[in-house]
Amino acid sequence: MREIVVISGKGGTGKTSVTAGFAHLAARRAMICDLDVDAPDLHLLLSPDRAETHEFRSGVAAVIDPGLCANCGLCAGMCRFDAIAAGPRAHKVDALRCEGCGVCERFCPVGAVRLEEKLCGEWHVSATRMGPMVHAQLFPGEENSGRLVALLKKEARERAGKAGLPLMLCDGSPGIGCPVISSLSGADRVVIVTEPTPSGAHDLLRVADLCRHFRIPAAVLVNKFDLNPDGCAALEARCRELGLDSLGRLPHDEAVARAMADGLSVAELPETPVSRALREAWERLSALPDAARRSDPFHHKPSA
Amino acid sequence: MICAVASGKGGTGKTTVTAGLAAVWDRPFTAVDLDVEEPNLHLFLHPDIESEVPAMMEVPVLDAERCTSCGQCAAFCRYKALAFMGGHLLVFSDMCHGCGGCLALCPEGALSPGERELGQVLAGSFEASAAVGRARFLMGRLRVGEAMSPPLMRQVKTKLPRRPTKADPDVLIDSPPGVSCPAVNAVMDADCVVLVTEPTPFGLHDLKLAVEAFRPLGMPLGVVVNRAGVGGTDIQGYCAGVGVPVWAEIPFSRAIAGAYARGEVPARVAPEAESAALTLMKAVRAAVAGSREADHA
């Protein structure tokens, strides 16, 4: 099974619109995954039925029992995250800052700290008109997005295997941190959606560097190229120098916003310049060899 | 005053809005880029970088001679940074959150503090407005391959005054997208949060998530509708319904999109973007003044 992950570095370049277009063009042969668990949007275009809903529990948060706390301050002194504040009678944990490491619980001399498991979000398995879909929502303000992404990928892989699907198509999140690294785990091919702006170009280089770091072949699709044609040509030249594959260009097209407002992928609308360019990109992507460079980003070498 | 510019959805215009505020702000201030995964503010403010310092986090280093394989550290670590394989302890420092628990626990002194590079903290200054002259600039840049951005963000924030006073400058923060731990880390010390959105279904959906995530923090929140006029989604109606004010609107225009694409700050070259930035500045100040009065009352 071929695993394709769509990322961008910079947010708002069109990852989700492109993924939905590819999902339509894959003609029900793909397991579709929304790995942007923090601010997922793919469901707005695919209308999944949420046939299954599961809780996502991960990590713990420290809670100090004010009745037991001797107010000695040892925990506050040991906490590396500045998450414990002194009070008149007892110390208190700031849940926003607590990373759930357990140091306060382990070292409290009077056993006043307990660790509570956290419910961080939920995840779903759905049917959509484009095929099966796995997606999630991390609760606002929560952490452990990388673990939720890893869980989604595992579920998607198993279900795609059982259904005999040859493809897994994943919508990633912006940035280069924890959830993005987790989404690259086991990927055969990355698609980077970018735009010809200083931010788009800057972030593309960092995300391309990330793909090289984990030895995953990347292909670039330039969205809204006509906002800055010169910038686009310079960007494409830079991509060639870096050995990145090209999937072509998409024009800025009002049809994308219209499709979004109707809850559709732009590829489902009657032929427009952008849907034609998207289909060409999909054909190029389908024909690209991925080379045997698979690696698992979380398969770390121990440092000692 | 600390003003954080955030959004649920990426690419709605956080950096444009932060740079716009920086262009019109008429009191001394520091501009801070806390989107350490993909920092972009410097591309628009063009600061002179005066220092670039690696940001390090403490991680354990093993002295295998001293380790008796008692297993306490690995049993304690919640991040799977310590594990036994074939009876030997292995340290996976990439997984470490730097809590220091293993160092404090080891009865043999076999673990000692080492370091992992999170990225860099850059500091400098840039030419702001005529009223302000040069303003301070700070940013964090996450090392490519590093998974954790909050520890680096905390290190950038230590360079700021803990509680800015009248004599101390204001702070304008460009935050990372989303509503999970990095975004919360960026806004949690702010006196007000500006949520940038766009009138599309994605923009509205992610704005709702952002309101849900940030409203419990207690500081005033307001919305900037960017690219107003495209998409047609009713952001105003949603905001009125939940009682979150719309502080400013930036109309969609090819001139603004083109200026941004060329690396220009729209508020410096397009009058409608400049007037939106001024409106926003006044709204932000009024909201912070109002919430301080409420605190004193």
Unreliable stretches of chain B: none
If strands are numbered along the chain, what order do they take across the biggest sheet of chain A?
A: 3-6-7-2-8-1-9-10-11
Query: What is the count of distinct domains of chain B?
Result: 2
Instruction: Please name the CATH architecture of the largest domain in chain B.
Output: 3-Layer(aba) Sandwich
Q: Count up the domains of chain A.
A: 2
Number of E-state strands of chain B: 11
Q: Describe the biggest sheet of chain B?
A: 9 strands, mixed
**H/E element sequence of chain A:** EHEHEHEEHEEHEHEHEHEHH
CATH class of the largest domain in chain A: Alpha Beta
Secondary-structure map with pairings?
The complex is a heterodimer of chains A (304) and B (297).
Chain A: E1 2-7, H1 15-25, E2 30-34, H2 43-46, E3 52-64, H3 74-78, E4 84-85, E5 92-93, H4 103-107, E6 113-128, E7 131-138, H5 145-163, E8 167-171, H6 178-184, E9 189-194, H7 198-213, E10 218-222, H8 229-241, E11 245-249, H9 254-261, H10 273-287
Helix pairs in contact in A: 1-10, 5-6
Chain B: E1 2-6, H1 14-24, E2 29-33, H2 41-45, E3 48-62, H3 72-76, E4 82-85, E5 88-91, H4 101-105, E6 111-127, E7 134-142, H5 150-157, E8 170-174, H6 181-187, E9 192-197, H7 201-214, E10 221-228, H8 235-242, E11 246-251, H9 254-261, H10 266-269, H11 271-296
Parallel strand pairs in B: 1-8, 1-9, 2-7, 2-8, 9-10, 10-11
Antiparallel strand pairs in B: 3-6, 4-5, 6-7
Helix pairs in contact in B: 1-11
